[in-house]
Amino acid sequence: MQHAITQIKSLNLDPTRPLLVTDADEVLLDFADIFKRYLASRDLYMAEEGYALYGNIRDKNTDKLLPKEQMPVLLEEFFDYSVDQQDLVPGARENLDALSAHCQIVVLTNLPHQFGERRRSLFRKHDIHHPIVTNSGPKGPAVAEISSGISHPVVFIDDISRHITSVAEHVPDSFRLHYVADEALGKLVEKAGDSHHRCEDWDHIRELVMGHIGDLK
Fold this sequence. Notes:
Blueprint: H1 2-9, E1 19-22, H2 32-41, E2 44-46, E3 57-59, H3 71-82, H4 92-99, E4 104-110, H5 116-125, E5 132-135, H6 140-147, E6 154-158, H7 161-170, E7 175-178, H8 183-186, E8 197-198, H9 202-215
Parallel strand pairs: 1-4, 1-6, 4-5, 6-7, 7-8
Antiparallel strand pairs: 2-3
Helix pairs in contact: 4-9, 6-7
């Protein structure tokens, strides 16, 4: 969390403008397809028995689950492989551009901090220039720190239910959206209980955000 706090303190946010905090993987960036390709290169596959990486990765040859203790190394190797290559989710950039006229935007991504600059370079390549904060662990404390002093609506978007719950606990007045870009993965998880809406795509996200901001003006 200390790494995230240092980055958050460098943000130059306007306390009088609405704030949108969005996740990156599987919200702005394609995660599922490139992760599946990476696993295949390692003779592994994702069983898709639930919406979680831990406990769902199997060996193609033996069909045995990858031991959980091997997952941190696997994920670090995956990010090293993928962090410069990920594609944008359809509609993400266009809708962020539209929303940026009405609110300030921060990308909050759970990513090993050593890959932060490479992820920022990727976003610049995709012509997205909003600040990016790398985080670890539950996102509620980071969103609380980012939104501290903001007097206007705070919106949070994530694909993982526990992060939405964490934000609900730490920033209870936030407007929370649950979005899983990959259709197949999305079928594996129900709407996050602490989210206000489950979103269909980025057009739907923009509509909901603008409706919420407009309602509170």
